[in-house]
């Protein structure tokens, strides 16, 4: 497994920061924030591609997380020999390319010459940046994956969906191994404006590290962030045969669509409830066997309320004593990458015997009675984890992981 977030590059740096309760959220310096309602984010600013546009940064994030995961797996760096499933954000031409095209067209006869302006020395660069499959194609070539790489975008559930597709490919007997990646480097001014228009982002800019407050009464919206998570998935039989170190077991996956609204969740929470129950059923587990929930926990008023409703419906009174924490309190919402990043953190929770906290939990919400592991890590031997990913557009995907094989 591999991971990159605003907390740092690699498992060790991220894990140490996470269990210390350190926030990676900070003021935006990458682009002007004049007149923006939200001026903070969990951007990854320490990489060479950080100022080269969303596509370039998404590729670098994906590459770094995948390189760490493949390196740990023991498979050859350039001959992985299994399929690739990449969760990535919708692709847009970066602004510096848009302005270049516009300037070229202005020299001639305006908009009708935009296509002619695109036929320049930069034409290939423009084309590749605007193609949804380019990032996966480059990753496939780098790591030597097999078959046509799959790129998917299912909103905030994308990373978990990529993992699910890899698991299902192995189960069907199509391969012994798969590389699943979730990556997102699209914290741009346009993204901030769009999410602000949806009233989804917090505007608590004064103290960035305090802005993400999942499940708190004073939560006011999520914090946009960037990152990547990658998992090398392998059949248990294959892993044992080659003597591989088994980091954890993917027990079950569940997904349910919600056609209620483009951004809002169905008021009764039934799709999220169905996704959790489907994951448990797929894992062959009962509700009582889950020992920790890695919550979607975005810090928006509606999502946190809906997640509480869904979990309390599934787990009943036990929900009050079941540890449930949100990594997003520290790293923000990494969108397409979130499900994969949080799967990595879920596996590390079981391996390290430590539950990361939900920081900034200073004002409990009496309507949401949960053990959110408030503000400080908790040492606990966890053998099973439920990781939730609930996205805009009714994309709900849940993963059940275990420390050891059944």
TrEMBL record:
<dbReference type="InterPro" id="IPR020841">
    <property type="entry name" value="PKS_Beta-ketoAc_synthase_dom"/>
</dbReference>
<dbReference type="GO" id="GO:0006633">
    <property type="term" value="P:fatty acid biosynthetic process"/>
</dbReference>
<dbReference type="InterPro" id="IPR016039">
    <property type="entry name" value="Thiolase-like"/>
</dbReference>
<dbReference type="InterPro" id="IPR000794">
    <property type="entry name" value="Beta-ketoacyl_synthase"/>
</dbReference>
<feature type="domain" description="Ketosynthase family 3 (KS3)">
    <location>
        <begin position="1"/>
        <end position="403"/>
    </location>
</feature>
<comment type="similarity">
    <text>Belongs to the thiolase-like superfamily. Beta-ketoacyl-ACP synthases family.</text>
</comment>
<comment type="pathway">
    <text>Lipid metabolism; fatty acid biosynthesis.</text>
</comment>
<dbReference type="GO" id="GO:0004315">
    <property type="term" value="F:3-oxoacyl-[acyl-carrier-protein] synthase activity"/>
</dbReference>
<dbReference type="Pfam" id="PF02801">
    <property type="entry name" value="Ketoacyl-synt_C"/>
</dbReference>
<dbReference type="InterPro" id="IPR014031">
    <property type="entry name" value="Ketoacyl_synth_C"/>
</dbReference>
<dbReference type="Pfam" id="PF00109">
    <property type="entry name" value="ketoacyl-synt"/>
</dbReference>
<keyword id="KW-0808">Transferase</keyword>
<dbReference type="InterPro" id="IPR014030">
    <property type="entry name" value="Ketoacyl_synth_N"/>
</dbReference>
<dbReference type="InterPro" id="IPR018201">
    <property type="entry name" value="Ketoacyl_synth_AS"/>
</dbReference>
<dbReference type="GO" id="GO:0005829">
    <property type="term" value="C:cytosol"/>
</dbReference>
<keyword id="KW-0012">Acyltransferase</keyword>
<protein>
    <submittedName>
        <fullName>3-oxoacyl-(Acyl carrier protein) synthase II</fullName>
        <ecNumber>2.3.1.41</ecNumber>
    </submittedName>
</protein>
